[in-house]
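This protein record is not my work; I was only asked to verify it. Would you go through it and say whether the fold makes sense for this chain? Here is the record exactly as it was handed to me.
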Amino acid sequence: MKNHGCTLAVVYTPVHVRVRLSSLRKSTYDNLLAFQSGSLTRKLRRALDRDPIAPILQPAWFPALERRLKVVLALVERCIGANGRSKVLVRE
């Protein structure tokens, strides 16, 4: 399945600008890393299944969220590579 450009652009642009122009808390980055390898889908499904108005997300949306997570992590890694970890990731 492929992301639609317009949908991905909404995610890509704000994250790119925020990460590029400011910094990201290290704990936020660590949490994003923890959601890799399908963990995001598993945790979201568990949390959303308990919601009184479930289903909130369509099953087909989970793979798209996983792909977007990879895009966000790649952007953060690119910023770290260009600017250094200490300038991009800050402690609380």
